[in-house]
Inverse folding.
């Protein structure tokens, strides 16, 4: 026996077809490239130190860019961190990079070469300042670092910039009151384990793989950076407006935190470029950054925080024209 289907009116059929066309168009917009031919050529992306978040994010982003723009070669350059990254882009040594907002602002306020040509692409995720000591250390606050051997990051790193400011806010002169060492996340954890240093600063996304690895095999502890110290820090000048009080969640390094949050400072990271970089290329790259959030975030946890709604806020930099085109194209 044949089934009798309800009769659909012409008007309802047309409405249904229209909805289907819109849905297919939206799906095609999300899945298909921007334009007929993806950009080609070569770009240089400055990342960070080995075992750090910048370096891993750069590697994962290169993989995603290769999917969307197979004719584009992406060369990765390791760096000391934010300060060197900003300088490389500003002077043309690199085309794209990630840097903390305070390092960007410092470069701009110092009127360094090429500062006026810097442009934002996306706000990515926050760095958390992490001060690490052995669990049995007598260091309970930043002020307790006096007369200790403290790794404060490579000279041109963002870690060095913020560690110096945190120390001064606590009444510790980084040039006189401690033995300052230039270790970063690549060497600091192992030196702490061996007893070569008493403490080290790190500023990065949560969790940082290089720190997670050592936390599983070495009994370490995080020293809190309390709100009153942050208030002192924010009185040091305009740049410090990018620092905000927060808590490192207990899930960041479970084996070291034992269910406890840690008071600290956060600062946003910016994906950035130069004014003269091709707008079409920047538009494509911006799209890849946004749509690959979940794929990259499955490996780099902090990348899960990349959000289309907040990506446009790249203060102190104005948006690059290509990035602006992309955000306008997806504006509801």
């Amino acid at each position: 026996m044949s089934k009798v289907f309800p009769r659909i009116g012409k008007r309802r059929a047309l409405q249904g077809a229209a909805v289907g066309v819109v849905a297919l168009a939206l799906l095609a917009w999300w899945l298909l490239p921007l334009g007929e031919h993806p950009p080609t050529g070569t770009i240089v992306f400055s990342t960070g130190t080995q075992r750090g978040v910048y370096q891993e994010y750069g590697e994962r982003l290169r993989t995603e860019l290769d999917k969307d723009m197979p004719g584009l070669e992406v060369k990765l350059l390791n760096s000391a961190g934010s300060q060197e990254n900003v300088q490389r882009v500003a002077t043309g040594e690199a085309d794209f990079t990630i840097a903390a907002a305070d390092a960007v602002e410092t470069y701009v306020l110092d009127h360094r070469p090429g500062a006026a040509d810097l442009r934002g692409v996306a706000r990515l995720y926050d760095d958390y300042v992490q001060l690490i000591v052995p669990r049995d250390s007598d260091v309970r606050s930043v002020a307790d670092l006096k007369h200790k051997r403290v790794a404060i990051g490579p000279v041109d790193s963002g870690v060095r910039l913020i560690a110096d400011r945190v120390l001064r806010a606590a009444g510790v002169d980084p040039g006189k009151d401690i033995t300052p060492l230039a270790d970063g996340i690549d060497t600091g954890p192992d030196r702490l384990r061996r007893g070569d240093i008493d403490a080290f600063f790190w500023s990065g996304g949560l969790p940082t793989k290089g720190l997670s690895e050592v936390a599983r095999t070495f009994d370490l502890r995080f020293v809190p950076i309390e709100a009153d110290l942050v208030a002192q820090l924010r009185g040091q000048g305009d740049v410090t407006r990018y620092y905000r009080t927060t808590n490192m969640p207990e899930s960041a390094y479970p084996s070291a935190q034992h269910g406890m949050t840690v008071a600290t400072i956060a600062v946003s990271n910016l994906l950035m470029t130069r004014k003269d970089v091709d707008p079409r290329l920047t538009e494509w790259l911006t799209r890849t950054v946004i749509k690959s959030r979940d794929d990259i975030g499955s490996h780099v946890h902090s990348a899960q925080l990349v959000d289309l709604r907040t990506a446009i806020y790249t203060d102190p930099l104005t948006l690059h024209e290509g990035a602006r085109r992309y955000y306008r194209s997806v504006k509801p």
In short: The chain has twelve helices and ten strands.
